[in-house]
Amino acid sequence: MMLPDYRVRQRDYLLDIARALAEELNLDKLLERILHVAIEMLAGQAGFIALRSEQNGWKVQVWSGLPKPLVQYIEPYFNQIPDLEEHPIHVELTQINRLIQELANSGSFGLLNGVGLPLVAREQTIGVIYIFRSYSASFSLNDRTVLSSFANQAAIAVQNAQFYNQIIQEKQRMSALLDSAADGIMILTPALKVERVNPAFVRLFQNSENDIINQDHQKVIRWSNPPAGITLEDAVAGGWPLTAHAHLYVEGDLLTNPQKPKIPVGITYAPLISPEGTLLNIVATLRDITRFRQADELKSTFISIISHELKTPVALIKGYVSTLRREDARWDRSIVDESLTVIEDEADRLGLLIENMLDASRLQAGGLALKQTDLSLPDLAKRLAKRFATQTSMHQIIVNFPEDFPIVLADEVRIEQVVSNLISNAIKYSNQGEIRISGQVRQDIVIVCVSDQGAGIAPEDIPHVFDRFYRAPDMARNTKGAGLGLFLTRSIIEAHKGHIWVDTESGKGARICFSLPRLHEIKSA
Predict the structure, then answer these.
(1) Residue (of 509, 484, 489, 508) closest to 499 by Cα position
(2) SS3 for 418?
(3) Is 92 in contact with 74 (CB distance < 8 Å)?
């Protein structure tokens, strides 16, 4: 029986290898397979493959049968390869060939001859493959032709694997960007089905990703009330009607979970359109706008409170002045003095309100300055207790500090403002009883507390009493105020690197405490 022609066997071998290479997309495994096949096909003993990238230049990726020192010695010489882009298919790697031939002839590594060809794919040289033999027979023209055919097939396979790796890396990079985004991101198909969501989106909905993927947009984005303007469903009816770069913004209250309150959100829909004008995907960016709503509500509250607080003293001052100026009446001195006292008190109230508003603005701008001096908190408390005792006959103000209470470094004017606010609140929110100003000494801090025997602070109000403009609903109906006192108090204490908190026991009135550092000087805020 006659054996098949050697060239036919080589051709069949190349076809089988080409099919195998086309199926392999892992670049490292592919290069190892290409080198192994090339060595086997040409009856070689060693070889290597070097690839070129625009970022890193030339690098030997895989080798077989070669000592590592030789690979490290060869690699720098690839920088001498001329520009391979002009006629890559006809490139003769003369310098590298000469170097390797000299090394082979020297017998230093047991190699006698070698052959190298560029890996060319789509008229672009992406690498070089070298095969060595350890016996004297030189590479024939047929050997070179076979290696060249194989190299062409291998180059295409390598480039496909590189493209595949680039796609995988780009996909991983996009996944990392999506996963790290603070806003919720949802990718929709042209049919408005959810294709992908990021973790921020899942956290906002407090649901599993599997429950969201492949759902209709309308089943995921459920508005408590129809939002104003055009919705996404309207926008994509019959295709994306806006321009290719136009975004759609929709704002409203979102229903996420029957047990959870609705969430105010703003959603920006951006289309991904092909060069032919076909809608490929829609990327929706969802942002929780609760804080923006709160800022608007805070602004409305501020306007309402300030309008009321300004209107009352101005009306009183104007009313008393108009009465005193009447030319058809003669007033007793006692009535005049009483009227002037009211005018003075209301003017002081206006001045304090304006000063508090200015302080709040300074705090927001980070401009609250501290003028620190040595301060005796017991002396300050006694002075303020004496002053406030003249303003109420229904309360007894008691000062209780240890005899060895230390001197602290603080802004006397600002700390006086803090203690005054706390005493004023105690008088305002308790009809009668004892108001106690007490102090404690700890290792690194001192603590001052102001307590009263009033109704106390409701548990639901405790987390908010130091917020700007916050007033407990029950107290707001019965007492005056702009909700700035405790906000400023907290800001002043924190500027001193201290803390302030509510220390109220149920049924025992209100008790608010603050701490100041004992030993460390605080720089001006």
Answers:
(1) 489
(2) helix
(3) no
CATH number (3.40.630.30, 3.30.450.40, 3.40.50.2030, 3.30.750.24) of 6-173 reads: 3.30.450.40
User: What CATH class does 295-364 carry?
Assistant: mainly alpha
Task: Give 10-residue mean pLDDT values along the chain (525 residues).
Answer: 49 61 71 82 82 77 84 73 50 55 54 71 77 69 70 75 75 73 83 86 77 85 79 71 70 76 83 79 84 66 61 76 79 82 78 68 63 92 90 89 92 88 87 91 92 84 73 52 72 88 78 85 47
CB contact at 8 A, 184 and 201: yes
CATH top-level class of 372-517: alpha beta
Q: What is the architecture, at CATH level 2, of domain 181-288?
A: 2-Layer Sandwich (3.30)
The side-by-side arrangement of strands in the sheet containing 511-517 is: 395-400, 433-441, 445-451, 511-517, 499-502
Measured between alpha carbons, how far is 6 from 140 in angstroms, rounded to an integer?
14
Place of tokens 């009321």: 308
Entry pTM: 0.44
Largest CA distance in the chain: 145
Rounded alpha-carbon distances, angstroms, from residue 254 to 169, 258, 261, 351: 35, 11, 9, 44
Q: Would the CATH topology of 181-288 be identical to that of 372-517?
A: no
Domain limits of the chain?
6-173, 181-288, 295-364, 372-517
